[in-house]
C-alpha cells in the first residue's frame, strides 16, 4: 500500500543528560514545539523510538514515555504496523510577528472599578461562601486534610520566619512576595507549560478574588461574556454581579464546544473556561480544539480566562499542558490556586497576565481590594514549594485520590446501581452520579441534604443547555467507610423515592 507520509529525521531535537529537566520531558517539549512551529508537518512520520534512543545514547523507554504523552495529548497518532505520525488535525499557527492578536483599543479596555452591585449571589451559594463549611460526603473540591503534611508545613513556617525583620512586618508589595512568585513561575513552567515569569504573576486571596479582579477590570455593565454551560457558579457570580450578561456555551465530552462557539457566538468580551478538566462534567479539551479556540479568540478579539483549578490531579498520563502555554497572541489570563492542592484556609491563589500594562492595573486593583495577602503565609509557601514538599505531596495525593475514586465507583455499583450510575474519570476531585431520567436532581439533592449528605445537583450549574439529572459526588476527603455509609443511605432514599 502506498504511503502519503515520509519518515523524517529530527535535527532540531536536542537532549542533554547534563540538564536538570528529565530526558523524556526534553524529547516531549522538543517534538511538541516543532509541531506547533511548523517544523513538523501533518502526517510526517517520526523515527522509531529505538532510533532516537540510539542517536542520543539513552534508554528506549525514555523516548517511549515522550511519544506516549504526545499521543495522549493528540499531537501524534499511531498507525498499527506503520509507525507514529504527526496528527493531521492540528492547524499551523501564523508566525508570531504576523499576528495582531487583540486590537490595541480592546487590549487597553481595563476599566476603573465599579463598586456597586447590580445583582445578588444565587441564594444556594450564600451559605457555602459565608458560613463555616462543614465537610460531609460528598462535598466537592475538598482535599484530604488529614493527609496534609502539617509537620513539614510548620517547619517551613518556622524557617521562613526565623529571620524576619521589622521592615517585613509592615506593608508589602500588593503584587505578592517576590520569592513566592519566582517559585510559582518555575513550578508553572515545568508542570503546566505556562509561559510566564514572576513579573507577570499576581498573588490573590483565592480564585474567586482573581475572578472579581478580572470582572472589575475587563467588564462593563451590559457586556457579554462566554461561559461553559454547565459551568462554574463562582465565575457567573463574579461577572454577573457587575451587570455583564452570560452567553452560555454547551460542553461536549471533551470540554467546551468549540464548533458551537465558531458558529453561534458572534462577540463576547471574555470567555471563561476550564479546559484541562471541565467543571463540572470533567472533559479535557484536546490540543486541536485548543488551537482552534485560540484562533477564534484572536479573530473575535476576546479575552480567554483559563481556570486551571485541579489540573495537577490527573491519574492517567501526564497532566495536559495549559492553554496559556499554546497562546502566541497574549489573549489568555491564567488562574491557579493552592486551596485544592494544600488546604482551603491558606487563601493563596494567583493569576498570570500577558502584558506589563495589565500587571500594573491588576496590582492596583488588588491593592484597593485588600492591600495584600499575608506575607508570612506567602514566604512559608515559597519555602514549602522550594524544598519539593508540594510535588511530593501531589504524588501521594494522586495515588490516594485514585484509590478513593475507585472505591466510590465500586461502592455505588454495589449498593446504589441502577438508581445511581457513575463512570471513572482520569482526573479531578469528584464523579458525576447520573440519576434516572424521571427524577429532579434538585429535589434529590435537597432531600439528601436533610439526611446529612451533600450532593449538589448538576442542574444548579446549568444556564440554558439542559443535562440529564445528576449529582456531583466528591471523594477526595472521605474514607471508604464514610462513603459506604453515605451511599447506602442514598440508595435507600432513591429506592423508596421519597422526595416529599
Beta strands, count: 13
Low-confidence runs: 1-6, 94-99, 104-125
Question: What is the mean pLDDT?
Answer: 88
Query: What is the radius of gyration computed over CA atoms, rounded to a whole number of angstroms?
Result: 24 Å
- Helical residues, percent: 25-40%
Order of helices and strands: HHHEEHHHHEHEHEEHEHEEEHHHEEHEH
Main sheet record:
8 strands, mixed
- Which structural category do the helix and sheet elements fall into? alpha/beta
Q: What is the spatial order of strands in the main beta sheet?
A: 3-10-9-8-7-4-5-6
Tell me the strand percentage band.
5-15%
Number of helices, counting only DSSP H or I runs of 4 residues or more: 16
Cα shape: globular
Measured between the Cα atoms of the first and last residue, the distance is 67 Å
Amino acid at each position: 500500500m502506498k504511503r502519503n507520509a515520509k519518515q523524517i529525521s529530527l535535527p532540531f531535537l536536542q537532549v542533554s543528560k547534563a540538564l536538570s529537566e528529565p530526558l523524556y520531558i526534553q524529547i516531549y517539549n522538543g517534538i511538541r514545539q516543532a509541531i506547533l512551529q511548523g517544523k513538523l508537518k501533518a502526517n510526517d512520520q517520526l523515527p522509531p523510538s529505538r532510533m532516537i534512543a540510539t542517536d542520543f545514547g539513552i534508554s528506549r523507554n525514555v523516548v517511549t514515555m515522550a511519544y506516549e504523552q504526545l499521543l495522549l495529548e493528540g499531537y501524534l497518532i499511531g498507525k498499527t504496523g506503520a509507525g507514529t505520525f504527526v496528527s493531521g488535525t492540528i492547524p499551523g499557527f501564523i508566525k508570531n510577528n504576523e499576528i495582531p492578536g487583540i486590537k490595541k483599543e480592546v487590549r487597553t479596555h481595563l476599566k476603573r472599578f465599579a463598586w456597586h452591585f447590580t445583582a445578588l449571589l444565587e441564594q444556594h451559594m450564600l451559605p457555602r461562601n459565608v458560613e463555616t463549611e462543614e465537610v460531609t460526603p460528598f462535598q466537592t473540591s475538598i482535599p484530604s486534610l488529614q493527609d496534609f503534611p502539617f509537620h513539614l508545613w510548620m517547619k517551613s513556617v518556622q524557617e521562613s520566619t526565623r529571620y524576619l525583620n521589622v521592615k517585613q512586618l509592615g506593608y508589602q508589595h500588593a503584587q505578592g512576595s517576590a520569592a513566592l512568585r519566582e517559585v510559582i513561575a518555575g513550578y508553572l513552567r515545568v508542570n503546566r507549560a505556562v509561559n510566564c515569569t514572576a513579573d507577570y504573576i499576581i498573588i490573590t486571596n483565592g480564585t474567586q478574588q482573581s475572578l472579581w479582579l478580572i470582572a472589575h477590570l475587563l467588564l462593563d455593565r451590559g457586556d457579554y461574556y462566554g461561559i461553559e454551560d454547565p459551568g462554574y457558579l463562582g465565575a457567573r457570580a463574579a461577572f454577573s454581579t457587575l451587570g455583564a450578561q452570560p452567553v452560555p456555551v454547551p460542553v461536549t465530552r471533551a470540554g467546551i464546544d468549540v464548533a458551537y462557539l465558531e458558529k453561534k457566538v458572534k462577540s463576547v468580551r471574555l470567555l471563561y473556561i476550564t479546559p484541562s478538566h471541565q467543571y463540572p462534567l470533567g472533559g479535557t479539551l484536546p490540543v486541536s480544539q485548543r488551537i482552534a479556540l485560540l484562533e477564534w479568540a484572536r479573530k473575535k478579539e476576546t479575552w480567554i480566562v483559563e481556570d486551571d483549578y485541579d489540573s495537577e490531579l490527573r491519574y492517567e498520563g501526564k497532566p495536559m499542558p495549559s492553554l496559556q502555554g499554546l497562546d502566541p497572541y497574549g489573549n489568555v489570563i491564567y488562574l491557579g490556586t493552592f486551596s485544592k492542592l494544600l488546604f482551603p484556609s491558606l487563601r493563596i491563589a494567583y493569576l498570570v497576565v500577558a502584558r506589563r500594562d495589565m500587571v500594573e492595573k491588576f496590582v492596583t486593583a488588588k491593592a484597593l481590594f485588600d492591600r495584600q495577602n499575608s506575607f508570612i503565609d506567602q514566604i512559608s509557601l515559597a519555602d514549602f514549594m522550594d524544598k519539593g514538599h508540594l510535588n511530593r505531596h501531589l504524588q501521594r495525593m494522586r495515588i490516594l485520590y485514585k484509590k478513593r475514586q475507585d472505591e466510590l465507583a465500586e461502592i455505588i455499583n454495589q449498593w446504589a446501581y441502577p438508581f445511581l450510575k457513575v463512570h471513572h474519570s482520569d482526573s479531578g476531585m469528584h464523579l458525576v452520579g447520573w440519576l434516572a431520567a424521571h427524577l429532579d436532581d434538585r429535589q434529590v439533592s435537597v432531600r439528601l441534604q436533610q439526611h446529612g449528605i451533600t450532593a449538589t445537583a448538576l442542574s444548579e450549574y446549568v444556564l440554558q443547555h439542559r443535562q440529564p439529572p445528576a449529582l456531583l459526588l466528591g471523594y477526595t476527603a472521605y474514607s471508604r467507610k464514610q462513603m459506604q455509609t453515605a451511599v447506602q443511605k442514598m440508595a435507600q432514599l432513591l429506592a423508596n423515592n421519597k422526595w416529599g
